[in-house]
Fold this protein.
Amino acid sequence: MDEPPENNRCSVCDANVRMTFQSICSHWFCDTCFLQFWDLDDVRRQPCRCPQCKRAITLLIPARGASIRLHDDDTHVTEILRVIDTYNRLYGKYSNGLIQRIRNLPFLLKKLLLDMMYPEQLSFPMRGHVYLAMTFGAVYVLSPVDFISEGRLGMVGLIDDLIIVLLCFLHVAAIYQECLLAPFIL
């Protein structure tokens, strides 16, 4: 589910898709479906729920082609991206809880790994931040200095290593989510 639907059809309305967006739960939506769903007056006070899995949608990411088409004179695309940017700014703050961040972790790390493969997708400071956090986590895990010693407590001593790795992943995912929440329109 990393790419938009192959047949270029929306998974909700089954119509031809002009622009696709991926939600934090990895489902894809067309711009028309999402905008109609979000335009319901009683829904605007809280994040929309995915019609497929019922998870709160706190982040929408346009397909790679949508940000490239920004340079065209298509006012429809520009307007849709502005609305999605507004939605992300309104409801991106709902993913600040620890449980929600852990639930978002697989999606964000998978997307980050894919973006790391393309140099134009991430800025140099973001890449450096990711490498620094992962290096810190690896050095801590491999170093003999621990908060809880594996020598004395055996397998229980691995708990601090797992916590440090999880914190590094959460930190990188939070920074990456902030990059994704940056406006699509320059």
User: Anything to note?
Assistant: Confidence is low (pLDDT under 50) at residues 67-71.
